[in-house]
Amino acid sequence: MAASALAYLHSDASPPIIHGDVKSPNILLDKNHMIKVSDFGASKLTPKDGNRFATFVQGTRGYLDPEYIQKGFLTDKSDVYSFGVILVELLTRKKAFFCEGNEEERNLANVFLSSLKEERLVDVLDHHMWNAERRDLIHEVCDLAKRCLSIVGEERPTMKEVKEELERLTRPQNQPCVMSNPEETESITGATLNTHTIESTDYYTSEKHAVRSIEEGR
Known about the structure:
By secondary structure, the protein is an alpha+beta fold.
């Protein structure tokens, strides 16, 4: 899953990499239904003396971390915020940014958080998803998205924590934690996908591609 790839870039790549422009158009499926994270044009290598640095704000409207916009500091939690927006897109089947309405109404993340606060979540979720069988699961995914979208970056989970939480939520009951073979699992949208374990070599390739893209952009 995309969360696994981002968790690898943040926690296991050397040096760690911040993607900088996480959005649904940059998450692709190859012919084997393997998820690939693409477009490392805005990516940054994490500084050795810390996990954030000042940079010119760039990214895609609707996915940008508000703390990054306000303070100009890009961190791994900026990617977490953007991934939270993707979760909300899946839950609502709506785009991250609308062309109509005021600024507050055009931002999907703001609409989602407002609906949670006002206890009218059912008004924004995709109606095909909201049923008795999946209600508890959807509530947990919504809670995870809410934490990813926290205004304060330090209050957001890490991508590793997001990955582990999604793996727990999508794992069939009584299924072992380690899956060595391809399995058919149900996504939060209810669609059945043929998912495969992504080997470390795939992450290594993504890491090298990211580093090369960053260096070529200098």
